Amino acid sequence: MSMNTQGRQTSPNKTSPAKTVIAEHKTISGNRGLAQAEKLIFEIGTPRRTGVDFPKLKGVKPRLGGMERTDEIGLPGLSEPETMRHYVRLSQKNYAIDMGVYPLGSCTMKHNPRLNEKMARLPGFADVHPLQPRGTVQGALELMGELSDWLCKLTGMPTVALSPKAGAHGELCGMMAIRAAHDAKGADHKRRVLVPESAHGTNPATAVQCGFTIDSIPANDKGRVDMAALKAKLGDDVAGIMLTNPNTCGLFESDIIEIAELIHGVGGYFYCDGANFTALVGRVRPGDLGIDAMHLNLHKTFSTPHGGGGPGSGPTVLSDALAPFAPVPYVIKEQDKWKLVEDVDGSESFGRMTAFHGQMGMFVRALSYMLSHGADGLKQATEDAVLNANYVQASLSHDMSPAFGGICMHEALFNDDFLKGTGVETLDFAKAMIDEGYHPMTMYFPLVVKGAMLIEPTESESKAELDRFIDVMCGLARRAQAGETDCFKAAPIYAPLRRLDETRAARKPVLRWRKQPSA
Ligand SMILES: *Cc1c(COP(=O)(O)O)cnc(C)c1O
What we know:
Blueprint: H1 41-44, H2 80-92, H3 114-120, H4 123-126, H5 138-155, E1 159-161, H6 167-184, E2 192-196, H7 202-209, E3 213-217, H8 227-233, E4 238-244, H9 256-265, E5 269-274, E6 293-296, H10 298-301, E7 316-318, E8 330-334, E9 337-341, H11 360-396, E10 401-402, E11 412-415, H12 426-435, E12 442-443, E13 453-455, H13 463-481, H14 485-490, H15 502-507
Parallel strand pairs: 2-3, 2-4, 4-5, 5-6
Antiparallel strand pairs: 1-7, 6-7, 8-9, 10-11, 11-13, 12-13
The protein binds pyridoxal-5'-phosphate (PLP).
Pyridoxal-5'-phosphate binds at residues 106, 166-168, 200, 202, 244, 248, 273, 275-276, 297, 312, 314.
């Protein structure tokens, strides 16, 4: 026997170079390289695999009045390593801000500093219980007080309600305060709310929820509120306006002060959707613009991991005019002691929005973010977010088509003009981004722009990361223009699942696993 002096061949494809890439190649396992296919836990686990069987109870009569379970509960069971693998594999299917650029516009998917997580996990905050005696939670209440103070200072508003648990919930809070203010004056004819066409979908939904009717205002060719159309809609029955600033086109509403005056002139209130406050912090105080109510998305502007439905926190700042109607609870300081005001008796408060006090963990994260940045750091983050968006807009302008001219705020908006005649649509372009390793940008929103692509880089991306992203976007645009339509129509090729029937998924979602009748 002779020694194998050659060793193992390490350079790939020396002997039999693979000449063609077979895009449609299907693996036996269903895995794609080291990305493992994974079934639902109900499909891989069986009730009998693990767990404890208690002996049948003897001598105890059921007291559920015939409601006791007779069939098996059917919860899946897996061994510990199988369980670990299941959830790790699932987690790897998630694209995350910790994996790469997450260019979704209107969402502010920014880096979430680990310091925030560390603070939120401090046992005194993480384990606090909403029914604990006040004397034992003074620190938590102080934190809420300090956060309120920062939010009021940053927005230039006198009052904040911390309890709303998402942006949309904050909108509800603001609109309920507006409704309560009109009701208190007996102004029950004030039921019409003006909503610009470019509004986030939650705005009209919120107004309707509060018993208002919606009157939409078109955008002008600069992507801002059409002032002539707005003036034509004014009337005594106007309860207020719901406006987003910067708006969903990523543009500052330059007529905002005049809008506030016009709305106040007819006895209405100005609700501002503050989800895009990222572009204003430290530079503009909404209170100075005549705004009466505005929610803040702590999970956008002030970090906190979000997406996929939670967690959220939507504190709502209120002007002097609306402050009396603010919901309970709120914190106050009385003789060195922090108190939670929970009683509505003798006040005009519209009541309570949630069982308890809001999202403690997110309050901690937001304050940690604020304190670690400092006032100057928050302003810098705003400036960098706007600079990054303008860098992206300028760098993509040659190959893609910006929806509006001029400088944008924190997000860059494109239409699909650059795809005209290529056969490639916004959706195909987004799918091709997945093959390139990027989560797609927000698409087909705002509705006022055809084939919209809305990109928000946030301040937390470096120039090097942005350049890589820009190279890919320009490369894809040139590919489309060069007629390589097929690779767009086939995309995503490398994703675990290919094109899905998104319409059916949205219209007929299957949200519950049901046991298939065994064959
Ligand atoms: C995200 C967002 C909302 C809603 O916030 P949620 O926390 O998702 O309820 C409202 N308006 C705008 C402009 C947003 O970007």
